[in-house]
Each structure stands twice: as C-alpha cells, then as structure tokens.
Amino acid sequence: MTLQKKVLQNLDIPYSYELAKRMEQYRSHPTLGYRPAGSKAEFETGEMLKTEMEKIGLSEVTKDAVTVDGWEFHKAALSYTNAAGETVSVELGAYQTTFVTDGPKEFSMMYLGKGTETDYQGKDVRDKLVLVEINQRDEWWINYPVYQAHLKGAVALIAVQSGGYGEIDDEALNAQDIAGPEDAPAFSISRKDAAGLLELLRDQEEITVTFDAESRVTRNCTTYNIVGRIPGKHPDRMVLLSAHYDSYFDGFQDDNTAVALMFGIAKALRDSGFQPNNTIVICAMASEEWGVVDSNFDWSTGAYEQIFTAHPEWVGKVIADLNFELPALAHGTRARIRSCYEYVSFLEEYLADLPNLTIAYPEETAVTSPIETWSDDFSMAIAGVPSMVNDFTGGSFMETHYHSQFDNDEFYDEQVYRLHHELFALLILALDETAVVPLQFSPVVQRIRKGLEQCREICYRADVAGQLGEKKRVLLEKIEELETLSDRALRRCREEYEAVEEYNRNYKQLLRDGKYDEAEGLFRQTRPLEQKLLARFKQEQDAFVQIDWYGNVLYPHEICSANLRLLGGAVRNLKEQRLSSALRKLYQVDNNAYAFNFDEEVYRHFTDYVFHQPKDRLKWGYGRLPEHENLYGTVKQLLQKEKKLETLTGSGMKEMDYREEITSLEHACSKLVVSLMNIVQQMEKSVTEIFEL
What we know:
Layout: H1 3-10, H2 13-22, H3 40-55, E1 59-81, E2 87-91, E3 93-94, E4 99-100, E5 105-111, E6 129-134, H4 143-151, E7 156-161, E8 186-189, H5 191-203, E9 206-230, E10 234-244, H6 252-271, E11 278-285, H7 301-310, E12 318-323, E13 336-339, H8 344-352, E14 366-368, H9 377-383, E15 387-390, H10 397-400, H11 414-432, H12 442-459, H13 462-468, H14 471-512, H15 516-525, H16 527-544, E16 546-547, E17 553-554, H17 556-575, H18 579-586, H19 600-611, H20 615-618, H21 632-647, H22 659-690
Parallel strand pairs: 5-6, 6-7, 7-8, 10-11, 10-12, 12-15, 13-14
Antiparallel strand pairs: 1-2, 1-9, 3-8, 4-9, 5-9, 9-11, 13-15, 16-17
Helix pairs in contact: 1-6, 2-6, 6-11, 7-9, 12-14, 12-17, 13-22, 14-15, 14-22, 17-18, 17-22, 18-21
Keywords: Coiled coil
Coiled coil: 472-513
Organism: Waltera intestinalis
C-alpha cells in the first residue's frame, strides 16, 4: 500500500469533529461563549490542546509565550420596561473595550441613527447609552461611530447590524475586531432585541434602561501559541501547519474545525507510520481575532508575535505555512487553495497529479492568489515564510453566520471537511519530497509589469497631464526601464524554476528508488539554492507588498497610480460641474470615504494612528500603507457647496465656483506624480537587486 493510501485510510474525521466540539466548553461568557485574547478561556483551551498534542504522539510539545493585549467579556445584560409595563431582558454581545458597571445600573438611552456627526446635532448624549445601526460590510467599521459617541460624552455605544453581517437570523449578535481605543466602550444587540427599544424610542427621545456589564481590556498580557512536532530527518527544514484557537461565541467553524483539522492530519500522519524528511510543525495560534488595542491592524496578533518575536529563526527554515480557516463548510462551488504567488505553479502541478479524493464540490479544486490580510498566513508571509490557506471567502457564510452565535455545527459539511483533510495531508507528503523549496517568482514580476501598464496609462490621461508637465518624459523613461528589467527578471525566474523542478524530480525519484544516500547528497548540494530562494521571497515582501486602507494587498505603484487616476478624474468632473461624480471618486482615495460622516477628530484619530504608532502596536501593517492624502477639508467644502446647490434648485443657477478645490486637488496630484516617479525608481533598484540583474 502506498503512503498516500495509508495516510488517507488513517484520517479520522469523527475525531476531528469531536475535538472541535470539545473546544466549545471553554468560554468567558457563560452562555454566549467567547475565547478572546489573553482570557482564562483561551488559556484553558491552550492547555487542553497541549495535552491533546501529547496524547496523539507529537514530540517536543511546547507553549510559546507571546505578549498581546487581553480581553475578558463576562456579561452584558440590559433590561427595560416596554409599553405594556412588562420587564424585557436582553443579552448583548461586546467588542474589545472596557466597561464595568459593578452590578445593575440605570442609564438613559438615546437612538442616534447611524451614529454619524450629523446624527448628534442638537442631541446631548453625555453619560448616556446610545443605540445606533451599522452595516460594517457596505458602510464603515464599528470604530468610527463608537469613537464619535465617546467624543460626544456617551458612556457606551450599542450597535445593531442593519446588514452586512449576522444576516442569518434577527436574533443574531455580531462581533468584530474594534480597531479602536479600549476606553470607548461598545456592545452589540440583535435586530430582534433592538426592535423593542426602537419602538419606545420612536415616541420619546430618551428611555431609561438597566445595564449590567463586565468587559475588561488589559494591555500587555501573556498568552501562548501551542506547538508540537513530527520530527524529520532534516530538523532545520520545516513545514508549518497553523490555525487559531481563540474565538467569538462558540467558534465551531472559526476556527475550532481548523485547529482540529491540523490535529486530525497530524494524527493520521503518525498512525500511518510516516517518517518525514522534514520536521512537520503543528502550531495552534492564540489571539487571531483581536490582540492589540487601538490599532488598525489588531487581528492576527498571535501569529505575528510567533514569527517576529517567539521564533524569528523559523524564517529561512520553514518552506511553507499551511494555514487553515473555516474548513468544514462549502465556500462557493469549489475548494480553493489561496496561495502566495510563488507557490502557485507547484500547487497547480500538485493538484493535477492527485488521486481521486472525496467529491465535495461540483467543480474541481483550484489555486488562487495572492494571499490576503484576513488570516494568519499574511503575518507569516511578510516575515519571509511562503504561505497559503484554504480559501474561505466564497459563499454566503461570511454575511450570514460568521462571527455570530450561529457559527455552530448546523452548518457542518462532513464531505467538505474530509476533502480538506485529504487535500492538505497529501500536500504535506508532496512538499516532503522536495529538495528545493518550489518557489516560482514569475507571477510577482508579471504583477509588477501589469501595474506599469496602469502607470503608463496615467501619463496619457488628459486630466493628469497638467500636473505631469516636463515630468511626463522622465516618468515614461523610468517606466520603460523598469519594463525592460522586468522582462529580464521574468526570463531568469522561468529558467531558475526549471532548474528547481529538475532537482525536485531527481530527488523524488531517488527517494522512491530507495537510493537514500544519493538523495541526501542532492539535498545537501541544493542548500545554497534554497537559502537564496527563501531570502528572495523575504526581499519581495519588503519591497513590493503593501496594503490599502481596507486591507487589500497591492503593490506600491498600483496604489499611487489608482489615486492619481481618481484625483485627476475628480478635477475633470469639477471643471465639468459634475460635483456628485467628483465626490464619488474622492471617497475612494485612501480612507476619505469616511471624511464626510464624522467629526474631524474622529477622522484624524483613525488616520494618524496608522502612521504615528510604534511597530509593536501596528504589527503586520507597520510601514505597509503608502503616504496618505488627507482630503477632509476639501471634501467638507464640496459637501457644503452641494447643499447650497440643493437649496438653489429652481433658481436658475447652474454653475458653482470650484476653483479653490480644483487647485487643492491639482496640488495633491502633483505630489503623487513625484511619489510615483520615486516609487518606480525604487522598484527598479529592488528588481535589480532581488533578481540579481
């Protein structure tokens, strides 16, 4: 029997399911669950997982201490008297903030619409609870209305999801990372429970409620990532499996089933007698959902600390991180492996050679790229560890069940879960038969090349030409030089990958022929090449990987050229007296979409905290956002003129004077032109160094 068949036969899906369910017993809140960062419930879960690793035969099981900001959420109970004179009791969810009533306490409550600046006009909310409606998927994140309420003097904000998340049921509570300060308290309420309060608040501006809450954030706590190993012949060459064990609510899908999948695969590898060439590392991560106060990058904290502080020496030794998220439900019509660009070729070849696996989707498994910021694989990748994750962003689950008390086993799909066990167990075997990390860098160069096409297009746009002036010729020359370099880099990448494939084919054949001494000789011979490739991967992350204000992974010239296109288009629209079109473009520049909804102090806080905090507060986002273009004042002026136009409707006035705003936006364009020239020049230098041209 082949090793593949032995491993597949030893996969015990009921074991994984039972372990996922067992994790639910540890909870901070007695009825809702929650295993947040640094909490007692998270600690107890980690202790159980450590014992389980030892039980299934993993070696060198350790608890790696990492520092995070911690949160304990024990209760949030609200009661009030309805119109019929009956007492109504409501259970609330919470966000990572501090608010302790020390027993039931009476508060006045007011309804503030969506909690924007205009909603507070003429309202005094000092020392009161405010109830607002939010849609975090289609509008703004929770931190904006929460901080707005805090600045207005409210004791706490209670948010009801009007859409975007928790859509499965009107009783659904939703939880997300707060991305704001701990002293601006926030809680969540279901649509069903909010309806009773809103009914009373329709007839009166304020009502009296009783609130009993205990939610505490403590900075700089110690938590633990739990690590076990299957030792390999080459202890310094590792394949890492990772998933997180903190959760909102019961966290069955997110991420109990992922942790249990790792254990299930590790158990099957052990039970099949697998003796790996490389050490297989199983890491149950703490503090993924949230782990740092008042940061735009407050999730994936445990993973960031694991690779940047607990084990930075893993960089250059771990050839792949296989991360897992929500693997026991169907996401769309096919399973997908979301990978860093460099692993795409290998994974496509791997999928093409697979035996028949469990049929769980109507379409075949595919590879997609690049990785995204929403899971722990991004923290690993920017540190220099090539990473991938089972893709979990398709389908409706994220809008319906995700981060609610309805994340439970009612949505469990055993066939999908089995397929993910099979798919990644066999991937570990395939990686174990490589002598050289199979990284193909061509897609990175192709993305650079594609971004340059956008830059070239900018040079010929009439609405940007005025700001380019004499710089147009210089910029076009720089673009052409980088295109030429990219073409040379592309040829080199393809030639190198052909050599890597040849080494790996030979190594695999030697292993299968039982020529272990020759295989070991080939392995030793290729160490310098592998180290060069892993070092290049890290260089690429530092040179090219940036993110926008919404967490999307982009390259620096893409962000800059997109902003130039938007600003130039807005200038053109204003000259054409098309104010609404101009505003729609300006809202897409950086985080200016929020500029018109909240006080300037709110806007500035959530802009400045991205740039003016130390690395240990910004984690994986440190230095990855480009220079910000602050359009707050310009947008506000344009909105005032829009209101004036509305009042003048029918007066015969057709034009408005936008010269001041046009001048301001043209100045912003000129700055971006200089930035783009510098970016292209720096990328030329990086391509030359990274690809040794």
